Amino acid sequence: MTFGWQRSQVGEIDALALDIPLQATEKTRFQATWKDLAWKQWKLLPGAENFSGKLEGSVENGRLTVEMHDAKMPYETVFRAPLEIEKGNAVLNWLRNDKGFQLDGRHIDVKAKAVHARGDFRYLKPEGEEPWLVFWRGSAPATVLRPGVTSRKT
């Protein structure tokens, strides 16, 4: 006997581990690996196919490594047609502590039918200060974004 969800191949979760301290849930730790997951668009989350990756670390300090191949990403509120991804890779690292929040995107390389984007970024939100965002291509910042200010470096 098979169920409907078993007939649709939505990928494989190889490992999933959670350690949730009941008295300090902000210290939750996790580890997961998966291959070729797929889902439909849900609210602001775009749909995806052939999404593989690894998640490790904690709410405070972690890493997400992802890869996509031969996939369509429907995102009706942003794109007229699904974005067709030939190949995509990214590594996201985050750090959250009393000084604020930092998200680093490294080794981002997405090749789609109509565009090829490569580079890195850093989003930083220091506690009590305005956030900022920097994009890199190569070793120098390409664009620095702060609220109300945009500067370009070449």
TrEMBL record:
Top-level taxon in the UniProt lineage: Bacteria
Record-linked InterPro entries: YhdP (IPR011836), YhdP_central (IPR025263)
YhdP central domain residues: 10-135
PANTHER family linked to this entry: PROTEASE (PTHR38690:SF1), PROTEASE-RELATED (PTHR38690)
Protein name per the record: FIG005080: Possible exported protein
Organism listed in the record: Enterobacter cloacae
